[in-house]
Amino acid sequence: MEPNNILFAFALTLFAGLSTGIGSAMAFFTKRTNKSFLSISLGFSAGVMIYVSLVEIFSKAKDILTQVHGDKQGYVYTVLAFFSGVLLIAIIDRLIPSYENPHEIRSVEDISKPKTTDKKLMRMGLFSALIIAIHNFPEGIATFSAGLVDPSIAIPIAIAIAIHNIPEGIAVSIPIYYATGNRKKAFILSFLSGLAEPVGALLGFLVLRPFFNDTLFGVLFASVAGIMVFISLDELLPTAEEYGKHHQAIYGLIAGMMVMAVSLLLFV
């Protein structure tokens, strides 16, 4: 495994994770939420992630595992790994209390609401930052794994996850601002919550590195596909629809699929 590949994968993961800072900056330095833009962008991100997961990543995982374990057994392992990824992210999502879930819709306009010094609200804000950090852990592994295996699909994945993280930055920074009245503190904590992606990816890499082989890569890649499909269907599309209109989200979704399809054709 080339050191340049590792650095490239880590850089992509860092870019995707720290985009929470973009959302936090939007909350403090813009007066209105461009909801149509966010809706289309989130739909676009979902389209990229769904298309690349089902068309490219799943098939690559299947190719790797069938070469090692034969057609039938390799296919079974691919399917099991895919749904294991779905189960992992679903469990993480299930463990997040709904009233503290950082994926609740927030708008820049919310920042104008009166602040409170309620200690309970501060704890909730910090807990939201912690939860989003935990939630971003598998996303970091997804981006990092794609960067190691195939840079041609890693870049659009990183961009899609970065778009996905922008509303999360808004969602984390606003509750903390409510509790403290301190924009700088809210921005920093929101920004740092995104570090979970590169840190999680790095820890995952260090733990798994001694065991890297074709089977592990195939299982990991199929799991990544499952994680990204779940995120797209459970988070991105519902969020896109809540920020905007149904058709805006769907137009973004189709556009994301088309752009991903074209970009993959360029590497054929």
Can you give a write-up of this model?
By secondary structure, the protein is mainly alpha-helical. It has one domain. The protein contains ten helices and no strands. The longest helix is centred in the first third of the chain and has 35 residues, at 35-69. 51% of the residues are buried. The model is unreliable at 99-103 (pLDDT under 50).
How would you describe this structure in keywords?
268 residues; 10 helices; single chain; mainly alpha
What letter string, H or E per element, gives the SSE order? HHHHHHHHHH
State the separation between the terminal residues, measured CA to CA. Answer: 23 Å
Q: Detail the poorly predicted runs.
A: 99-103
Globular, elongated, flat, extended or rod-shaped: what is the shape? globular
- Given the helix and strand composition, which structural class is it? mainly alpha
Radius of gyration: 19 Å
Describe the structure concisely for a colleague.
This protein is mostly helical. It has helices spanning 3-17, 20-29, 35-69, 71-94, 119-149, 151-180, 183-193, 196-208, 214-243, 246-265.
